[in-house]
C-alpha cells in the first residue's frame, strides 16, 4: 500500500512541528511548502536525518513549488503571519486573507481531493476564505482551534483538580478568539461534570470562572511570554490529531471549525462545533443541547465571526 502524502503549507514554527509529528507518528510522506526559499528544504533535510535514529521511513521534501503537493491526501495550512505582542488575531486579517487566496488556488490546482485543515489566524474567517478560494466541498475543509482550546482547558482543569490530564474531557465551542465558549456542563473528570465536582467541593465556581477566562486568553498568554511569535507545540499536536482522525478513519468526535448549513441555527459560516471526523472528512456536525447562557455566548461568538467575514469581504484580494 502506498504511503499517505501530507502537504504542509507553511514551514514556520507550526509547519515544522507538524512535519516532526507526522514523521514520528508514521503518518506518511511529507511535503513542506513555503514561499521562503531554503527554509522548507532545510527543515525537510534536518527531519529526514531524524529517520535513522527514530527508525522512521517517512520521506520529507521541502519545496517552493505547488506542483510538489500533487495528490496530497491531507493539506495542513499554517501559511501567513503569526501574532506579535500587542497584535490581535484580527489585525492579521488583511495579510492572511491574501495568503489564503494563493494557498486556496494552489490546493485547487494540485490537490483538489485532499482533506484540508486550516490553522492560520484569524481562524474562523481564514478557513471560510480558504474554502471559498479552493472551491473544495465544505465537508473536506475544516479549521483547527477547538482541539487546542479544549486541550488548554483540560490542562488547567487537571491542574486544578489534581488528576491526570487523560481523565479530563472538555468542550469548547464558538469562534477561536476571546469570545470562545468553554461549556462546563459538558466538561468532566472521568464522566463527572464540573458542576457536580464543584458540589463535591473539588473547586469553586469562582476558580472555574478564572480557568474559563484563562482558557479564552490562552493564546495571548503564550504570545506575551514568547515575545517573538505564538504557540506552536500544542497547535501542531492538535492539527495532527485531526489529520490522523481522517487518515485512519477514526470517527473522532472533536471540536472543529466546521461549515454550518442550518445547524445550531446558523448558515453559511465556519465556527467551532463538535463534529465527527473520519474518512469522509466532516461526516457529521453534532448538535448538542445548550443551556440559555451557553446559547447566548455562542451567538456572541458567531456574531464576532460574522464581523470578521464582513471585514474580509471589504478587502480587495486582487491587489
Ligand atoms: O489555534 C489556532 N488555530 C492557532 C493559530 C494557534 C496558534 C497559531 N495560529 C496561527 O497559525 C498563527 O496566528 C499563524 O497565522 C499560523 C502559523 O503560525 P506559526 O507559528 O507557524 O507562524 P510562522 O512560524 O510565522 O510560520 C508561518 C509561515 C512562514 O514560514 C512564512 O514564510 C509562511 O508561513 N508563509 C507562506 N507560506 C506559503 N504561502 C504563503 N503565501 C506564505 N506567506 C507566509
UniProtKB/TrEMBL annotation:
<keyword id="KW-0560">Oxidoreductase</keyword>
<feature type="domain" description="Lactate/malate dehydrogenase C-terminal">
    <location>
        <begin position="148"/>
        <end position="307"/>
    </location>
</feature>
<comment type="similarity">
    <text>Belongs to the LDH/MDH superfamily. MDH type 3 family.</text>
</comment>
<dbReference type="InterPro" id="IPR022383">
    <property type="entry name" value="Lactate/malate_DH_C"/>
</dbReference>
<feature type="binding site">
    <location>
        <position position="83"/>
    </location>
    <ligand>
        <name>substrate</name>
    </ligand>
</feature>
<feature type="binding site">
    <location>
        <begin position="119"/>
        <end position="121"/>
    </location>
    <ligand>
        <name>NAD(+)</name>
    </ligand>
</feature>
<feature type="binding site">
    <location>
        <position position="89"/>
    </location>
    <ligand>
        <name>substrate</name>
    </ligand>
</feature>
<dbReference type="GO" id="GO:0030060">
    <property type="term" value="F:L-malate dehydrogenase (NAD+) activity"/>
</dbReference>
<feature type="domain" description="Lactate/malate dehydrogenase N-terminal">
    <location>
        <begin position="5"/>
        <end position="143"/>
    </location>
</feature>
<dbReference type="InterPro" id="IPR001557">
    <property type="entry name" value="L-lactate/malate_DH"/>
</dbReference>
<keyword id="KW-0520">NAD</keyword>
<dbReference type="GO" id="GO:0004459">
    <property type="term" value="F:L-lactate dehydrogenase (NAD+) activity"/>
</dbReference>
<feature type="binding site">
    <location>
        <begin position="10"/>
        <end position="15"/>
    </location>
    <ligand>
        <name>NAD(+)</name>
    </ligand>
</feature>
<feature type="active site" description="Proton acceptor">
    <location>
        <position position="176"/>
    </location>
</feature>
<feature type="binding site">
    <location>
        <position position="121"/>
    </location>
    <ligand>
        <name>substrate</name>
    </ligand>
</feature>
<feature type="binding site">
    <location>
        <position position="152"/>
    </location>
    <ligand>
        <name>substrate</name>
    </ligand>
</feature>
<dbReference type="InterPro" id="IPR015955">
    <property type="entry name" value="Lactate_DH/Glyco_Ohase_4_C"/>
</dbReference>
<dbReference type="Pfam" id="PF02866">
    <property type="entry name" value="Ldh_1_C"/>
</dbReference>
<dbReference type="InterPro" id="IPR011275">
    <property type="entry name" value="Malate_DH_type3"/>
</dbReference>
<feature type="binding site">
    <location>
        <position position="34"/>
    </location>
    <ligand>
        <name>NAD(+)</name>
    </ligand>
</feature>
<dbReference type="GO" id="GO:0006089">
    <property type="term" value="P:lactate metabolic process"/>
</dbReference>
<keyword id="KW-0816">Tricarboxylic acid cycle</keyword>
<dbReference type="GO" id="GO:0006099">
    <property type="term" value="P:tricarboxylic acid cycle"/>
</dbReference>
<feature type="binding site">
    <location>
        <position position="96"/>
    </location>
    <ligand>
        <name>NAD(+)</name>
    </ligand>
</feature>
<dbReference type="InterPro" id="IPR001236">
    <property type="entry name" value="Lactate/malate_DH_N"/>
</dbReference>
<protein>
    <recommendedName>
        <fullName>Malate dehydrogenase</fullName>
        <ecNumber>1.1.1.37</ecNumber>
    </recommendedName>
</protein>
<comment type="function">
    <text>Catalyzes the reversible oxidation of malate to oxaloacetate.</text>
</comment>
<dbReference type="InterPro" id="IPR036291">
    <property type="entry name" value="NAD(P)-bd_dom_sf"/>
</dbReference>
<dbReference type="Pfam" id="PF00056">
    <property type="entry name" value="Ldh_1_N"/>
</dbReference>
Amino acid at each position: 500500500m502506498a504511503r499517505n502524502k501530507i502537504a504542509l503549507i507553511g514551514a514556520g514554527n507550526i509547519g515544522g512541528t507538524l512535519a516532526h509529528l507526522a514523521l514520528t507518528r508514521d503518518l506518511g510522506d511529507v511535503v513542506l511548502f513555503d514561499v521562503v526559499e531554503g527554509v522548507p528544504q532545510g527543515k525537510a533535510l534536518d527531519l529526514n536525518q531524524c529517520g535513522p535514529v527514530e527508525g522512521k521511513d517517512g520521506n520529507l521534501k521541502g519545496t517552493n513549488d505547488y506542483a510538489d503537493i500533487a495528490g496530497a491526501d491531507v493539506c495542513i495550512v499554517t501559511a501567513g503571519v503569526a501574532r506579535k505582542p500587542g497584535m490581535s488575531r484580527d489585525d492579521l486579517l488583511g495579510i492572511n486573507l491574501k495568503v489564503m487566496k494563493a494557498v486556496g488556488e494552489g490546493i485547487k490546482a494540485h490537490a483538489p481531493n485532499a482533506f484540508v485543515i486550516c490553522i492560520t489566524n484569524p481562524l474562523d474567517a481564514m478557513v471560510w476564505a480558504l474554502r471559498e478560494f479552493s472551491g473544495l466541498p465544505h465537508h473536506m475543509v475544516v479549521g483547527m482551534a477547538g482541539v487546542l482550546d479544549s486541550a488548554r482547558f483540560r490542562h488547567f482543569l487537571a491542574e486544578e483538580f489534581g488528576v491526570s490530564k487523560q481523565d479530563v474531557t472538555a468542550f469548547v465551542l464558538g469562534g477561536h478568539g476571546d469570545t470562545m465558549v468553554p461549556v462546563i456542563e459538558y466538561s468532566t473528570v472521568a464522566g463527572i461534570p464540573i458542576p457536580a465536582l464543584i458540589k463535591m467541593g473539588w473547586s469553586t465556581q469562582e476558580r472555574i470562572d478564572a480557568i474559563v477566562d484563562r482558557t479564552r486568553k490562552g493564546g495571548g498568554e503564550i504570545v506575551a511570554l514568547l515575545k517573538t511569535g505564538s504557540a506552536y507545540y500544542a497547535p501542531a499536536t492538535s492539527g495532527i490529531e485531526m489529520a490522523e482522525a481522517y487518515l485512519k478513519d477514526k470517527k473522532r468526535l472533536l471540536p472543529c471549525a466546521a461549515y454550518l448549513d442550518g445547524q445550531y441555527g446558523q448558515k453559511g459560516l465556519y465556527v467551532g462545533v463538535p463534529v465527527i471526523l473520519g474518512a469522509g472528512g466532516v461526516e457529521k456536525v453534532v448538535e448538542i443541547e445548550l443551556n440559555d447562557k451557553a446559547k447566548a455566548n455562542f451567538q456572541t461568538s458567531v456574531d464576532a465571526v460574522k464581523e470578521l467575514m464582513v471585514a474580509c469581504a471589504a478587502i480587495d484580494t486582487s491587489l
